[in-house]
From TrEMBL, chain A:
PROSITE patterns in alphabetical order: HTH_ARSR_2 (PS50987)
Protein source organism: Tunturiibacter gelidiferens
An example molecular function term from Gene Ontology annotations: DNA-binding transcription factor activity
Top-rank taxon, per record: Bacteria
NCBIfam families the record matches: HTH_metalloreg (NF033788)
Identification of the protein by name: Metalloregulator ArsR/SmtB family transcription factor
Residue ranges constituting the HTH arsR-type domain according to the UniProt record: 1-91
UniProtKB/TrEMBL annotation, chain B:
A Pfam family this chain is assigned to: AHSA1
Domain Activator of Hsp90 ATPase homologue 1/2-like C-terminal: 24-158
Phylogenetic classification of the source organism: Bacteria, Pseudomonadati, Acidobacteriota, Terriglobia, Terriglobales
PANTHER family the record matches: ATTACHMENT SUBUNIT, PUTATIVE-RELATED (PTHR36929), BLR6751 PROTEIN (PTHR36929:SF5)
Name of protein: SRPBCC family protein
Family: Belongs to the AHA1 family.
InterPro entries registered for this protein in UniProt: ASHA1/2-like_C (IPR013538), START-like_dom_sf (IPR023393)
Source organism superkingdom: Bacteria
Gene3D superfamilies: 3.30.530.20
Positions in coiled-coil regions: none
Length: 123, 169
């Protein structure tokens, strides 16, 4: 239904999860270490980790006690690439809109001049 | 050359991507260019793209379907539903879009039109929210300040990590 990029951005839409990813960017980390900077309950942190795992942004170790989390860079790269493309799309669309608005205004001025110039029309 | 500004996640909501630009034209004119299908088709999309608008019913609940044709023959589908329409001011719609046959990206987009310095500022906000994010309560806000800094680091990380992204000609 929804694709990887959508779920990546949805997962990134939360500041706590972004902070967790930023922490993981520094290397593999235990859940306890991840939770340390946050004033948040362990279950709340676990929920965030589940969302990240489901979105494919992190992988988790198998040891039951110490399931270390690891960043998966590929989906983040995809999202960054998409963002780049989107920005380019709009840079160029905005350029075209700019041009179009300019031609509209030139046309308006011309029309106004023609109206005032000859054959006064009463409204 | 007018500046397009882009920000990621720095807005109040902390979960938005924002693009904005000021156009040297009256607001009514910019609004019309954005909401009249005949005009939209004239400028929408990058250089070399053309747009076929199949349907554009600009009112809450109305559909907007268009196909963008890339210069290389690739078609991109855009399907939207308008959520909010405030004449000359605000346009909100959900958008599903992507390359034909490829994965579709979904988000909500709010476009605002404001008078500024004799022109019009257009600001686009992209909102990607999971249902879970929408339902989340405010309990988590204690971490926002720290998260902001961390997100900055993540951005730096992404910038460093993926700097080899090459522009597709």
């Amino acid at each position: 239904m929804s694709d990887q990029i959508t779920s990546t951005f949805a997962a990134l839409a939360d500041p706590t999860r972004r902070a967790i990813l930023a922490r993981l960017a520094l290397g593999e980390t235990s859940v306890t270490e991840i939770a340390a900077p946050f004033e948040m309950s362990m279950p709340a942190i676990s929920r965030h980790l589940k969302v990240l795992e489901k979105a494919g942004l992190i992988s988790r170790g198998r040891e039951a006690q110490w399931r270390p989390c690891k960043l998966k860079a590929e989906p983040l790269k995809q999202a960054a690439d998409w963002l780049d493309e989107y920005r380019r799309f709009w840079e160029e669309s905005f350029d075209r809109l700019d041009e179009y608005l300019k031609t509209l205004q030139i046309k308006e001025k011309k029309d106004a001049r023609n109206k005032n110039g000859s054959g006064k029309k009463r409204r | 050359m007018p500046e397009t500004k882009m920000e990621v996640g720095k807005s109040a909501a902390e979960r938005e991507i924002v693009l904005s630009r000021v156009f040297d034209a009256p607001r009514q004119m910019v609004w019309d260019a954005w909401t009249d299908p005949k005009q939209v088709a004239l400028w929408w999309g990058p250089k070399g793209f053309t747009t076929t608008i199949e349907e554009m019913d600009v009112r809450p609940g109305g559909l907007w379907k268009q196909v963008l044709h890339g210069p290389d023959g690739t078609d991109y589908l855009n399907e939207s539903v308008f959520l909010e329409v405030v004449q000359n001011e605000r346009l909100v719609y959900t958008l599903t879009g992507g390359r034909k046959g490829g994965p579709m990206v979904q988000f909500e987009k709010a476009t605002t039109f404001e008078e500024e310095a004799g022109g019009t500022r257009v600001t686009m906000r992209l909102i990607f929210a999971s249902a879970e994010a929408r339902d989340q309560n405010v309990r988590d806000y204690g971490s926002i300040e720290g998260a902001k800094q961390a997100f900055q680091r993540l951005e730096d990380y992404l910038a460093g990590q993926f700097v080899e992204t090459t522009a597709k000609a």
